[in-house]
Amino acid sequence: MSARPLLMIPGPIELADETLAALGSPGPSHLDPELIELFGRSLEDIRTLFGSADAQPFLVSGSGTLAMEMALHALVAPGHSVLVVDTGYFSERMAKMVERLGARAEKLSARAPGSAPSPGELEHALSAGAFDAVTLTHVDTSTGVRLDVAAFSEVAHRLGVPVLLDGVCSAFGETIEQDAWHLDAVLTASQKALAAPPGLALLTLSRAALARLESRATRCPSLYLDALEWLPVMRAYEARKPAYFATPPVHLVRAVAQSLSRVRREGMGARVSRHAEVAKTFRAGLRNLGLPLVAEETLASNTISGVYYPEGVDAALVGALRKRGYVVAGGLVPSIASCYFRVGHMGETGLPEIERFLSALGDSLAELRSR
Ligand code: PMP
Ligand 1 in contact with 149 (CB < 6 A)? Predict the structure, then answer.
């Protein structure tokens, strides 16, 4: 057992030493050349790592929920209709936000937890109504279901409907190709597969989305959520010039810049392959232990797994793992919350870590069954 329990939850996750170290030095001013350089480079990294040549990146203090709301306000205005592809807890949250901003949300829901609507069903739903945007949750953290974003966005693009992608649980662990997939908004948060501390929202708006926003007759009712308020600051930092709208969390910016440069050094392709390898090994281990996944096999993500407790075992498993040095998360989908647990395998997690975790899982099950 390690001296300190390891975080195997879907964020916050374990941090690399160099990211942690970046938090510990005295803060520069937000107008200091060092900070401006780090901020500017981070914006460039976000754009490139999201697979875009010309999208507008934003790095804003806030969690993933802030990123969702800011992206939504950039694409959707009161009176609009939005189709929410619903694969679980965070799609529900998106639908609530749509309604809060005075737009209409229609859900295209998965048949059961662990499944997902098909691109064909999306085509049918979009053709049957007049929608101003569609939202996709790339990986739903409540189930571990991953959508085939390329296939869904191809349908939406063909029908002329802008796409918002919630990549909170996927970005930096799954492939995202903003330009090739015609994604109007992509968002994530710092605490998941980027392996940085929680607290920063990362998002990009395509050129087309930004142009539509700039020509919209009405402004976003919230000052903080209005991408147009942040735009001059992001443009200034990218041009390596000082600017201010709201004080950036300078220590966090340093840490995120460090994590982004780790991703850049590893290479996105290599990083996604590593995540896929870890997920494959984890799923094989679960099969050996007789533990079924919540997600249908073909929909299982690289970054998180929802796992059903086997017959005769319950949430005591979470405590048994904690005793062995691992923190995992409980179930989140209300209808099955007491029947499963969730394991994050993203960021710095590699094969040795997942193999040690599988062994602790096997020991924990044996302990509970011997009672
Ligand atoms: N979307 C998804 C897919 C998430 O997994 C989460 C967080 N688990 C959020 C949105 C919300 O992010 P946060 O908790 O950082 O506000």
Answer: no
Cross-strand partners of 343: 305
Mean local confidence (pLDDT), 239-260:
97
Of the chain, the percentage scoring pLDDT greater than 70 comes to 99
pTM of the predicted model as reported, rounded to 2 decimal places: 0.97
Q: Which long-range contacts (CB under 8 A, 24 or more apart) does 227-236 make?
A: 227/56, 227/58, 227/70, 227/73, 227/74, 230/58, 230/60, 231/56, 234/43, 234/56, 234/57, 234/58, 234/59
Residue with CA closest to ligand 1 atom 9 = 64
pLDDT at 363 over 80: yes
**Ligand 1 centre distance from Cα of residue 168 (Å):** 6
Tokens linked to 148: 């085939």
What's the gap in Å between 11 CA and the centre of ligand 1? 9
pLDDT at 371: 82
